[in-house]
Amino acid sequence: MSHPSRRRAVAARCAAVAALLTAPCLVSGALAAPAAATTGAAALVDFNGDGYADLAVSAPGGTVSGIPEAGYISVVYGSSAGIDTAHPKLITRATAGVPGDVAEYDSFGRTTAARDLDGDGYTDLVVGDFAAPTVLWGSAKGLTTATALPAPAYTLAAGDINGDGHADLLTNANGGLEVRYGPFSRAGVPASTETLPFGEGDEPQAITVGDMTGDGADDIVTTHGFEEMQGKSRFWAGGKDGLSHTFKTTGYYTVGGIIADVDKDGYGDFLALQTDQVSEDRDYEAGAIRVVYGSASGPSTRTAKITQETPGVPGVSEEGDHDLNSGDQFGYSLAAGDVTGDGYPDIAVGVPGEDIGSVREAGAVVLLKGGAAGLTGKGAQAFHQSTSGVPGISEKGDYFGRSVLLGDVNANNRADLAVATPYEDGTYADSGAVWVVRGSKSGLTTTNITSFGPRALGAPQKEARFGDSFAR
Question: Residue 336: its pLDDT value, please?
């Protein structure tokens, strides 16, 4: 899936930090756990409180102060005209006020979570790397001050687990899942903390947050696996007393995921990439989304499986050949938001291994529309760099759609799609790029698409992997 030299370099990095990882590295296109997501009508990420959704774009491979793979975050603010690329903010360990030192292979921004932790009305951004996480505090001027948080955090997610109206932070570190309950002080101290211990090799790879039970408190679904074996995902109920210490399985082997009430019945539904128990060949799979519908008790017995063979879904399910080419990986990345303004969350599906004509692994995104019947292929749309009106050219190994996010950047009550290809080549290989596609009453539209890479934002370019993930 990657160029040979890139595969060797990534493999070496993975070996160097293997003791720290809780999810597999992306080696030769192997599927790392997608970033966890929050509930379907996703919380507005608005760092400056102006009502427009903002983007925080991770570039974990970015060179900072001459140090390779130190990593950085680019913040691009929303506006009435859409995403504002003329006034970006670059945040690194070298930024004034950000604690910690720039270090090789730290990959600042490799994991993120965005929520209003201190309750002041501005979204805050928690940024993780292989050192201690940092919280960047929102304000009327955007992200301006920062505080170091205690202990490493290899996975980050946020929500309101006890339903008290204050944002809580979930981290996976030191063999357990830690819930840090809000509100937080500006010193980064939570109101209280609890930890769910896990056995060695059983730690969550990814944490998905959202209210499946409809009680006003967020629940979580965790993904588990060890070496080439994948475990069934687990549901943990939130409530007024905090997170339950017992779980029930969703019944399926899944990776990452999101929670969104796609049929508007009051219960969040869990959607994730479904895989097999033996997951070593996951990067060659065609891909499939498993929908587990919510109920008052959490995951219900009502489920659905959606692939590119589902009626109405564009494309054809294609597996890789276990030699040179990846599979489509339909569902590698997922995001939820109301694109059409009809009140139902729609689902953006990344298909980064999709071949476009004869161009291998160019990548694509499919939009599935929510409705009273749940998630189906009816009215689905597909986009890639060869779609008329989409800037750029489909190229081998771009993996367009590896990261996706839905957010209303121009505040017109219709979510817009941010889609990234971190392996897009610019002046340098693998510099990365992002496209923002507008939402409309009929779905996504190619009118007024904005595309940008690190060069346009004045950010480091060389092998930055800009767009590796979006904060949510």
Answer: 98
